[in-house]
Amino acid sequence: MRATMGKEEKQEAKETEQSQNSSESSSGKSSLRRAIESITSLISLSYSIKIFSAKWKTIRTKLEDLSSGLEAVENCEASENAILSGIVSGICQTVNECHDLARRCVDLSYSGKLLMQSDLDILSARLDLHARNLSDIYNAGVLTRRFAIVVSRPGNGACRDDMRFYVRDLMTRMKIGDAEMKRQALLNLHEALVEDDKYVKVVVEHGEIVHVLASFLDFSHDVRIQELSAKIVSVISGFGSYKVVLIGAGIIAPLIRVLECGSVVGKEEAAKSLQRLTENSDNGWSISAHGGVTALLKLCSGGDGSEIRAELVGPACGALKNLVGIEEIKRFMVEEGVISTFIGLTRSKDEVLQINSIEFLQNIASGDEAIRVMVSKEGGIQALVRVLATRSVACSCKVRETAMRAIENLCFRNANSISLLIKYGFVDQLMFFLQHGEVSIQELALKVSIRMCGKSEEAKKAMGDANFMTELVKFLDSKSFEVREMAAEALSNMVRVPKNRKRFVQDDRNMCLLLQRFDPKQVNTGNKKLLFSILMSLTSCNSGRRKIAHSGYLKNIEKLAEDEVSDAKKLVKKLSTNRFRSMLSGIWH
């Protein structure tokens, strides 16, 4: 009987203990729920406050974050109720005091402005403390996620409030979550930003998220957290109007630290962000002050001990290209041997890296004869010609156009550079693009042809030997006025050389195509002044004069002379004078 009673007493005691534990758990949950509801009520009340608006806006943001934190905690299992209860109790006390202050601000029943401002500052600091306490117990493992509810991302076309709620929930998880929860929140945020750029504005408006991201970049030892933070910053930096927010949050120094010490993925994303941020040269000094220029140079030269990856070096190259406009930074780069580094990078098989390296050389030498000479001496001209000589599909038209522009801007300041171009076979490359290039690079080749034969007698002769005139005369019939103009100008320069004149006249097709431009039936006639200039040069040789005089197009030129076209009158006069001289010479002999 006693044994039976003993069992019954034990069972009853066990049930009583379970009931008490259940009551405690229920009590803990209910106090948590009351705290959340009280905060929600306070937030609603705060919108009615018309004074100290800036302070109440800050407090409201902190209350929203605290509410999100408590909601996350509510969906967790507490292993020690006492710790959680203590924190919730403190929050409730602060919220009650905040209610009192809010009511007094609404009713304008406070005793003094300075005292109220002081009370609000104290209250704001206490809210920060509560948020830290929540984060601490989460990170310490006091709370474990059991069936934590993850807020679903609103669908397409969702209202701004729903988007804000979702972002605020992610923010809370970033702040108070363990490493896994932080990673998941960052991943969800990155996906949202990539798939719907309206989230970028929501994130920037929240403000604190950018500071949290900067903190993760700077202090997180979790590689994945750092990488995801760098990716999010990279997305935001792609929006011009939000770059100032990143700069204001002090993002440059953390990005440079990732560039120096981060993972490969982290470095790539940091380099992309820095490239975008340096589009505004005002940020150049900040990057330089934090050692960013040195870090970028190391990446481009492989001096950080890692293999050169186009995905990483491309944007690093782009960032340095943006910084060469600052004279002091440019000089530092040159002293660090940047010229030879970037000449080497022009050989890359990656399009973006090739373009960035070529444009860098062009920019750094722009308006600086000493650096132009340095680029030439270190093999820059040969490297650019080598890019054009690449016939593989891997070398895109865009890369060739970039190289052609760089040659145009760098190589026609002095005869020595033109001689080097000829030596390295550039004339053959130019001829190839005139014959086989796409329209855009054909036009570039024409522009370069004008520059080349307009600056150097050696170039005119070399181009004549390469049969340039036969190609140029074909462009006189182009539908594009600009192309016809450029072809005529190049020809006008080239036929000033006696050897080129003879070569041009010897080919009847050349003469026919040129003289056809004076047929009134022709639509694409071109610039008559340049065309007359070519004919005047050709009359300097006997065969040229004869072919013009005996052509069926002479009557068109004479008609223009009758219409008082001065160039036509000069040409007819020269032809007539020479004809009269020939007649006299025949009579005399």
UniProtKB/TrEMBL annotation:
Residues 268-497 form the U-box domain. Residues 1-30 are annotated as: Disordered. Keywords: Repeat. Residues 34-142 form the DUF7032 domain. The keyword Repeat applies. Residues 1-17 have a biased composition (Basic and acidic residues). InterPro entries: ARM-like, ARM-type_fold, ARM_PUB, Armadillo, DUF7032. Signal peptide: none annotated. Pfam families: ARM_PUB, DUF7032. ARM repeats lie at residues 291-338, 379-425. Residues 18-30 have a biased composition (Low complexity). PANTHER family: ARM REPEAT SUPERFAMILY PROTEIN. This is Vacuolar protein 8.
